[in-house]
């Protein structure tokens, strides 16, 4: 049984030429899939025990009853769904969570209970997508943010699966590109029953690109609970670093580590015991970051090698997965990565919820509304240059009152901007009601 919205959704009679070509190309490339998988295995981008999932195959059995399928690209999207998944589980709904990266799979395994089924999203070939949908037969599909795979969306719509875009985001870089391909994007967005956007700006962009029933519900990442930390590991780290001023650089990207190491070298003259902790967005960069630190004349330690920071460690490279909650609790000052380069900035919310004072670079368009509110209220500090980065970090190291003021203002912004989870649940209520009806019928 499908929701009335899905049953009544009118599909365009024909696809634009771009999507027809995409389908043919995706089908034609299937013979190359083994070579692609082999290459990605060598790069560490696939799990050798689960490569079948990329071809739509699964060893897991579909659970009985309604199944809510939630798809997100990677770690950020998976974590954004955490509170929503908890609420859906409270309704006794079974969850299928898909993502596309090894790191997100590891996070899902740590963050969610065993009854939340994680699968790698299949490669976007009609054959693989059909296998996936034939096996799982989702009752409701929720796509997070903007990971829009054409064949996945088109096949779901053809099967009348109710589909909702949640926590929708359309970046200022993507919007003009899609405007030039309006026929393509509108054919995809029109397959969704509703689009739930993070902000008014996002909602306007989705509407302009052909989205139907676009609502502004807010950013689910603002409602995500603070990440956990192993108490024993935290106690050990605190014992090893007690008395030292600490800066955490979270989710850094290539091009930023050099600037942070240089900032450490400038600051250590004023704060001789300073420890900088670099948490790379992609842990496999740990060794290269350690080499950079050594080349600069500083002493690194790598967490992936089970090393702990000693009294002689200058920069600690936390190249592991799922431990940001640990390091956010370790330091009162957090620099948010992805913002000194044109990546668009990483999510500052979890760090703020754990009491951090936030410093960021100028490139924060991924979370523009959040950072604008933080900067306007004095809840974060922006550093546009290397010199200003050193200045901002140095002031916060030297002035505990300034740190407290920054953190208090940031916490106020997070509280003010929250509520996306409740608005999302309200928007999903017609679909969830239908699933509860199906559950009742199945149990009758």
TrEMBL record:
One Gene Ontology cellular component: plasma membrane
Residues the record marks as active site: 77 (proton acceptor)
Compartments, record wording: Cell membrane
GO MF entries: Kdo transferase activity
Domain of life: Bacteria
InterPro entries documented for this protein: Glycos_transf_N (IPR007507), Glycos_transf_N_sf (IPR038107), Kdotransferase (IPR039901)
Domain named 3-deoxy-D-manno-octulosonic-acid transferase N-terminal: residues: 50-223
Keyword Transcription regulation assigned: no
Listed pathway(s): Bacterial outer membrane biogenesis; LPS core biosynthesis
Reactions this protein catalyses: lipid IVA (E. coli) + CMP-3-deoxy-beta-D-manno-octulosonate = alpha-Kdo-(2->6)-lipid IVA (E. coli) + CMP + H(+)
Keywords noted in UniProt: Cell membrane, Lipopolysaccharide biosynthesis, Membrane, Transferase
Enzyme Commission code: 2.4.99.12
GO biological process, one term: lipid A biosynthetic process
Site (Transition state stabilizer) location in chain: 145, 221
Family according to the record: Belongs to the glycosyltransferase group 1 family.
Function in brief: Involved in lipopolysaccharide (LPS) biosynthesis. Catalyzes the transfer of 3-deoxy-D-manno-octulosonate (Kdo) residue(s) from CMP-Kdo to lipid IV(A), the tetraacyldisaccharide-1,4'-bisphosphate precursor of lipid A.
The name this protein goes by in its record: 3-deoxy-D-manno-octulosonic acid transferase
Organism this protein belongs to: Bradyrhizobium niftali
Record lineage: Bacteria, Pseudomonadati, Pseudomonadota, Alphaproteobacteria, Hyphomicrobiales
């Amino acid at each position: 049984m499908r929701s009335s919205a899905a049953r009544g959704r009118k599909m365009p009679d024909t696809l634009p030429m771009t999507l027809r070509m995409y389908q043919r190309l995706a089908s034609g490339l299937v013979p190359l899939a083994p070579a692609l998988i082999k290459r990605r295995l060598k790069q560490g981008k696939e799990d050798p025990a689960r490569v079948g999932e990329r071809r739509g195959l699964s060893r897991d059995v579909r659970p009985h009853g309604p199944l809510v399928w939630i798809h997100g690209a990677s770690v950020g999207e998976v974590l954004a769904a955490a509170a929503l998944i908890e609420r859906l589980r409270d309704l006794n709904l079974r969850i299928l969570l898909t993502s596309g990266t090894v790191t997100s799979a590891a996070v899902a395994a740590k963050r969610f209970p065993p009854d939340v089924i994680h699968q790698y999203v299949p490669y976007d070939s009609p054959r693989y997508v059909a296998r996936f949908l034939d096996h799982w037969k989702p009752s409701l599909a929720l796509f997070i943010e903007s990971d829009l795979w054409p064949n996945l969306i088109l096949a779901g719509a053809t099967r009348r699966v109710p589909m909702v875009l949640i926590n929708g985001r359309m970046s200022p870089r993507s919007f003009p590109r899609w405007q030039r391909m309006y026929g393509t994007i509108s054919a995809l967005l029109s397959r969704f029953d509703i689009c739930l956007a993070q902000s008014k700006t996002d909602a306007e962009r989705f509407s302009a690109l052909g989205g139907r029933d676009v609502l502004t519900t807010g950013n689910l990442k603002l409602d995500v609970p603070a990440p956990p930390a192993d108490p024993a590991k935290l106690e050990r780290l605190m014992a090893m670093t007690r008395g030292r001023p600490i800066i955490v650089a979270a989710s850094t990207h290539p091009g930023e580590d050099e600037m942070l190491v240089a900032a450490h070298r400038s600051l250590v003259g004023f704060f001789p015991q300073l420890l900088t902790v670099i948490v790379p967005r992609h842990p496999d960069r740990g060794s290269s970051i350690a080499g950079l630190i050594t080349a600069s004349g500083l002493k690194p330690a790598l967490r992936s090698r089970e090393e702990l920071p000693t009294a002689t460690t200058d920069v600690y490279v936390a190249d592991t997965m799922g431990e940001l909650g640990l390091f956010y609790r370790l330091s009162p000052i957090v620099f948010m990565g992805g913002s000194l380069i044109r990546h668009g900035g990483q999510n500052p919310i979890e760090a703020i919820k754990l009491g951090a004072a936030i410093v960021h670079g100028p490139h924060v368009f991924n979370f523009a509304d959040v950072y604008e509110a933080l900067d306007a209220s004095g809840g974060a500090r922006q550093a546009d240059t290397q010199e200003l980065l050193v200045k901002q970090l140095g002031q916060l190291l030297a002035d505990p009152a300034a740190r407290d003021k920054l953190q208090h203002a940031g916490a106020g912004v997070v509280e003010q901007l929250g509520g996306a989870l409740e608005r999302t649940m309200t928007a999903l209520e017609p679909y969830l009601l239908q699933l509860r009806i199906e559950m009742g019928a199945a149990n009758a």
